[in-house]
Amino acid sequence: MLAFTLRRAIQAIGVMIAVGVIAFSMFRFAGDPVNQIVSLDTPAAEREAVRKSLGLDDPVPVQFARYFGNAAQFKFGVSYQFRQPVSNLLMERMPATLELAACATVFAMVFGILMGVYSALRRDTILTKFFQAVSLIGISLPTFLIGILLIYLFSVTLGWLPSFGRGDVVRIGWWTTGLLTLSGLKALIMPSITLGLFQMTLIMRLVRAEMLEVLRTDYIRFARARGLTTRAIHFGHALKNTLVPVITVAGLQFGSVIAFAIITETVFQWPGMGLLFVQAVQNVDIPIMAAYLLMVSLIFVTINLVVDILYTIVDPRLRSTIRRPA
Amino acid sequence: MTVPVLSVRNLEVEFLTRRSTLRAINGVSFDIAKGEVLGVVGESGAGKSVTGLAVIGLIDPPGRIAGGEIYLSGTRIDHLPPEEIRRIRGKRIGMIFQDPLTSLNPLYRIGDQIVETIRTHMNLSETAARKRAVDLLAEVGIPAPDKRIDAYPHEFSGGMRQRVVIALAICAEPELIIADEPTTALDVSVQAQIISLIKRLGRDHGTAVMLVTHDMGVIAETSDRVAVMYSGRIAEIGPVQDVVQNPLHPYAKGLMGAIPTLAGEDKRLVQIPGSMPRLSAIPPGCPFNPRCAFVFDRCRVDRPEPLKHGSHAVACHLFDTTPHEAAKETAA
Amino acid sequence: MSDAVVPHRVEPNAPAARSGTGWLKRALDSDIFYSFRRSRMTMVAAAVTILFFLLAIFASQLAVQNPFDPAQLQLMNSRISPLWTAEGQSPFLLGTDEQGRDVFSAILYGLRISLVVGVLGVIFAGTLGITLGLIAGYVGGAIDGLIMRIADVQLTFPAILIALLVNGVAKSVFGNRLDAMSTLAVLVVAIGLSFWVQYARTVRGSVMVEKNKDYVAAAQLIGLPAPKIMLRHVLPNTMGPILVIATINLALAIITEATLSFLGAGMPDTMPSLGTLIRIGNNYLFAGEWWIVAFPGIALAGLILSINLLGDWLRDALNPKLR
User: Fold this and answer.
1) Which of B146-150, C2-6, C131-135 has the lowest mean pLDDT?
2) What SS3 state is found at B307?
3) Are C309 and C121 in contact (CB under 8 A)?
């Protein structure tokens, strides 16, 4: 167990170093860090001085080590657009993104599992066919179109929900939350659905496939031969075994939910990291792009690690013998 | 004579496929008395396991019981609604499957699985059920049962897991145990232990046992009576000593001839030529006729019914004393 | 001569009769075509997909104006609602946007761009992925390890993030004012770099299986060079799964391009793709000018849905296990 966790942690660090190299290359070679300090009409001599003072004439490995050391302390340089430290900008916007991603994941999990279980247990009903149609649409419609459609329906036509922003937020320390106010909650509904719909589809398909697989196993047949009630078999035995791989996928999906939030945040003008990143791409604000990449990778890698450890807790077989299904 | 624990009459099981209806069980009848062990042998696909599943009501679509009756201690159970047959499963009929490695849910402690089963069928508190679970584990020979009860299935060896499966099968004191190839997946050294365990439990509790296997050795050791199945029918049924030492049906003869013995060193093992027909291509008349050394015209048209012959009942025209034409006339 | 020979006697004639339309007949007899005819939904999806491609190819013949040519746009024609509404004006079937651009014409030209980027992106991703997969599978060892490690890491990141990063870096390196055609090239590269992993994994898996088979040993024995063996013998065996991936990837590539353009990191307003049109139209949604966003949206959704349906069917039809 410990060796397993350790090996996973080392792998995670490896990934972070690889991503760090990419982020550094972007920071150093794609953008000119000197531009962070000086304005466009600064004379060349002055630029050269700044370049020296920033250590940009040091050997590349030294620069990389310095960049990485700074990044480890959450110092990512200064944004070209905002003339502010990138870390401040990111930290300010992170709660919005994490809250949105969490709500979307909860929505996707709850409805994905319910729909998946239902369509596995009642294979030929009209509702199942409907769920399958929804899942096809969920995979085929681009996220931003779903967002626009929701806005048109619930904001433009019905006027029930706000079409942009977070509503009123409450500040708790450095964290801001929209979960404690009515307008904040209302503002969360449509972005969460938009962001979660694709994951919901994915989870529904996965749960259905896994559940059908589990229902064919010997231990389910034996559970039936023991005379257990259908409810105990379906919702005790089959569901628990179904959810083990689902946890892994859903956990891993949380990472991509954060990345996909880029689109949702743009549609709903949600003041999160994703919106910051899109603006950075539009305005070629390299320090923000590099920092966002590092932050998102860190979140991904951490989640992967947590999911791996969770997996071993849920599945007792893995606690003693470490092997992961393909 | 008392009522048998299990009584099967003219059982027919069909599987509907897109092309046709396959008859997996075709007119099977037998009884098992209290405390008796009936061995059921045959090649794979002969219908042994399907018979067991039919008794316990676990034939899933596209399969279905197409005819016949099944009585448990005199009550008919084959046409009960699903909820009622569910109450019988595990309580009055215990079942043991072939592969102990896959029979237990890997994510639940074995104790939880036993307690769950006990409490489904008996009105016991959690603590009482747990105490009973420990007793059961002790009875099936699990060492340190009060500790092992909290272990997960993967922490047991195959033989130990099969003991757990047996504990699960007997946890509500069933009248009948159906053991479907209970030793096939186990090491040879463990097989004998499991067999003697099943035998002892049957004796101690007066439980009737239907032991399905393709291993004649296991049958000879354990059973009181034996039924030889071929192509969804019973070819011969009778006391185990008589059938093993003096098989009548040509197929049973072949089957017994295929068992190696220590006594007859220089005898060649007999082989039955050909293989059992597929369900979609069962020949008319006696299903064994294409492989039978004693085949004659009647075997190709007329299906033999099991007839009493001494202590055996055998479905073979060789042992039919009534003349063929006469039989036809009475039937018409 | 017994009866048993009779069937053979027909044989010499049969190939001759077939030879003219041989491949066509064989194709029509095949299992794949059979399953195609069985599924009405798939036939509709195929028809819609072909229709979209035709619309894109003949865009300049069908459109009432060239939406990319500012000289043809007149501001007095701006924000006209669709033809069937009260304020509709001929010839603007689906209305016009704020620059006086005919929405129908813009969709046709936008469709063309979306399909060109999608198809080229898939070809780029496929070529890159197949090449790397062949090398990884055939050469093995450290190179295999390196390629697959990169694939693993990249797979944890969503394609859209990678595409955005590639796009941002390209803009930074080439300066922010890329012309429309260069942007298109950047999009193709960004999409290609985002989607190569699946091809590489599939091809590598097949190569690992195939390279131990006797026919490869035989080819090596007669001295064929390794690249030739891979391309001529191993690659054809992987074409089925690749086709499925490519079809589903085409839908994904079109979504990615549309998303990038919607986010303002793709095609510029002067040469809009469907995604750009939706971004532009989105700004007028609150003003009640729904048609500027609705019709490009419907076109995009219809295109992706039909390609996805085709992909699903192809996957099931080529997978003998599911038949």
Assistant:
1) C2-6
2) strand
3) no
